[in-house]
Design a protein that fits this description.
Helix content: over 70%
Number of helices: 10
Transmembrane segments: 53-74, 86-105, 117-138, 158-182, 203-222
Keywords: Membrane, Transmembrane, Transmembrane helix
CATH topology: Rhopdopsin 7-helix transmembrane proteins
Distance between the termini: 60 Å
Strand content: under 5%
Radius of gyration: 20 Å
Number of strands: 2
Shape: globular
Number of domains: 1
Largest sheet: 2 strands, antiparallel
Strand order of the largest sheet: 1-2
């Protein structure tokens, strides 16, 4: 039986965490810079302006800041600046998640054609989730040096409630979105091309949210040791941001095409300025 709290095992797991996070951070950096042309196309006027591009960009930039902050934490060999780095990375991470969730909220409202009940429910879910994010940030102050010399937050287990709240919020919003799409398709006696895109995106998004959200929560509750309790937290944040922004780009491509049907006009009325 492996003693996960043995110092040698913890040091080995911490090394695995450092390598894994470097790889995940590298994947996001590749994703960020290879898709800068999307933002540039709005600046050049090659795409129709949509006010939601600001939320999309906020999610990407905040995730970039979180990744940079995380890389600093992983390679910081002194306690000097450790506390600030942890707070900075936490704020950027939760801001990225909040922006990604807001893209989902807007999509839900659009699919339900701004139904007042759905707007209130979606907004309430997002607001409550944001409150948990603020709570998570407020608990990110205690820091110390971890095995391998990297900077870390001491109160890892305090973020479990925040992760659970975020997971439940995402799943709830995705279910509401899929119900709305099913409702539209049933009224139309068949899905439009854009409707199929939205449905497929919703299913993929739900599956990704379930996998990416459940795994870090399970490991946090298992509390095998500190590295294993946090190893999937950064990948979860990056996965949620990448999913939201990738699907935003795909939807914008669909809205910019000439193949959309009535469903698109519902979406366009909300997603465009």
């Amino acid at each position: 039986m492996v003693n996960f709290h043995d110092p040698a095992v913890v040091a080995e797991d911490n090394l695995a965490l450092l390598k894994f996070w470097h790889v995940v951070d590298g994947i996001f950096l590749w994703e960020f810079f290879t898709n800068l042309d999307f933002e540039w196309s709005f600046i050049q006027g090659r795409r129709s302006y949509r006010w939601t591009i600001w939320i999309y960009s906020l999610s990407r930039v905040a995730t970039l800041a979180a990744v940079v902050g995380n890389l600093v934490l992983l390679n910081l060999n002194s306690s000097v600046g450790c506390t600030f780095s942890v707070i900075f990375a936490s704020v950027a991470s939760y801001l990225a998640l909040a922006a990604a969730d807001l893209l989902l909220v807007i999509r839900v409202m659009a699919i339900w054609n701004r139904n007042k009940v759905v707007v209130v429910i979606a907004t309430t879910i997002w607001t409550i989730n944001g409150a948990f994010f603020i709570q998570g940030i407020s608990r990110s102050h205690s820091t110390n040096l971890s095995f391998g010399g990297s900077c870390k937050a001491l109160n890892v287990q305090a973020t479990k409630l925040t992760m659970i709240a975020s997971f439940l919020a995402d799943v709830s919003l995705l279910v509401i979105m899929l119900v709305g799409l099913f409702r539209i398709d049933s009224h139309r006696n068949g899905a439009s091309a854009t409707g199929r895109i939205l449905w497929n995106q919703g299913v993929i998004w739900l599956l990704l949210t379930t996998v990416a959200g459940v795994v870090p929560i399970v490991f946090a509750f298992l509390d095998l040791n500190e590295p294993l309790s946090t190893i999937f937290r950064v990948p979860w944040i990056i996965a949620m941001s990448m999913a939201a922004t990738r699907m935003y780009r795909a939807l914008d491509d669909a809205l910019s095409s000439n193949t959309y049907e009535n469903l698109v006009f519902i979406l366009a009325s909300t997603l465009t300025a």
